[in-house]
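Can't paste images in this forum, so I'm doing it all in text. The chain is below; anyone willing to post the predicted structure tokens underneath?
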Amino acid sequence: MSSVNCPGCGEPLDTRSHKVTCDHCQGRFRITALCPDCAEPLERLKACGAVDYFCNRCNSLISKSRVAFSASPE
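Text version of the structure:
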């Protein structure tokens, strides 16, 4: 899974949640999973502890290793 860095200080952010607080600068951010093919936001599917991603525009499942993440101020 790709990582995303804090826009404020550059430290890595945890992408497992939709909303995160940077441990280093205390900035609050919204994490968005994006399709690597069309850059549209992905739908997050959670079942039995597993997380998968689906692109409604491409109409396909996206592997966690291909997901692009974006952080924007909350």
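The mean pLDDT is 92. Residues 33 and 69 are 5 Å apart (CA to CA).
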